[in-house]
Design goal:
By secondary structure, the protein is of the alpha/beta class. Helices cover 38% and strands 15% of the residues. The strands form 2 sheets. It has a 7-stranded parallel beta sheet with strand order 3-4-2-5-6-1-7. Strands 8-13-12-9-11-10 form a 6-stranded parallel beta sheet, sandwiched between helices. α3 packs across α4 and α13 packs across α14. The chain is globular and about 70 Å long.
Length: 420
Amino acid sequence: MTTPTPTITSFEEFNLPEPIMACINALGFTAPTPVQAAVIPAAMQGGDWIVSAQTGSGKTAAFLLPALQHIWNSMRSGSNNPPDAPYALVICPTRELAQQVASDAINLIKGTKGLRVATVVGGTPYHKQRQDLKGAHLVIATPGRLVDWINQGGINLSRLHSLTLDEADRMLDLGFTDEINAIHEACEHRQQTLMFSATFTSRETRLASNLMLNPQHILLASSKEKHTNITQQLQWADNSHHQHQLLKHWLQDETMVQAVIFASTQVETDRLAKELESEGISAASLHGAMPQVLRNRRLDALRKNRIKVLVATDVAARGIDVPNITHVFNYGLPMKAEDYVHRIGRTGRAGRNGVAITFAQRGDAFKIRDIERYIERTIPVTTIEGLEPQLSAEDFKRSQGRGKPARGRAGSSGGYRGND
């Protein structure tokens, strides 16, 4: 495992093609982030790499720029691939993330003649994707739809140079095993594989190594070091009504510009968004059961600041890159502890500060324990004056596995006494 100390301080040092440098300057990028300074030279030199980097750290450009440079050099040298054979492939676990990566790629090649990017995700017409794939040099895809095109013979990966898995930990999960193996076999002669995520468990690292040749590691984030610019707080609630009152208090905070609220289920997502709207809060829901057109429209409304609060399931934890998100609320706790890291990473992006509030009731004590073990720190417990829980934080944690805990201590006053 390597933790590099990059010395590169400007994009000019990467010797990128002139048209791409012009796009970088037009986008206002002045100096590479640590992950870019470490990964870009390594990827340009070749080899397989597993990269652990914090969300919002600039990792998308870290894998796009080496791929675009290789494509540019290949095009200039005249070593063109067949029309159905891309040079580089990026796989993302969600449609939203794939579309965000594609948007970033297009911004990096504006004015670059002849270099084409295609996005291949579910929920969009096949006939349009067939046209987009013709002559595409860089393809950004979700696993399921890409395998459809492989099986149909609509894409040729035999000439692929590089394969990148963004948010690789999610795709190394059991739900994507068959698709990732099929993609791996379709481009087994590739020269390079890159895997990026904020989190890699030991199991996921082993699975990643099975898809790579002698992978090297770049560690720019660990569970102890992540999100130092995000203020994390845990607030215990007596019941669901109390929890909603805590949320409403936070949504009136003057420092909140935009927020993402994570709920546990699609039903809860829709219900909570409607409830907030009825209370005069500009809110919308986002989850995987929605048509892709509607999901795109709501994300666009968030990016354009037409809605203040997005209530989402974990489908949105990977792919929302909106600089104005100042707060993240864990209204329903994640199923896996590592998803907590990805959720709170929706705020505090690109060096900004953010706030992450986690609400928990007494039955959630074991999940809080798992999250704190994973991030290797205790989330500070805070209260709101006038909305304090009747139980102490210690009572909530002790309640795990012991049925109903005792009532608040004798003599306590000022606690929240609302009805569920």
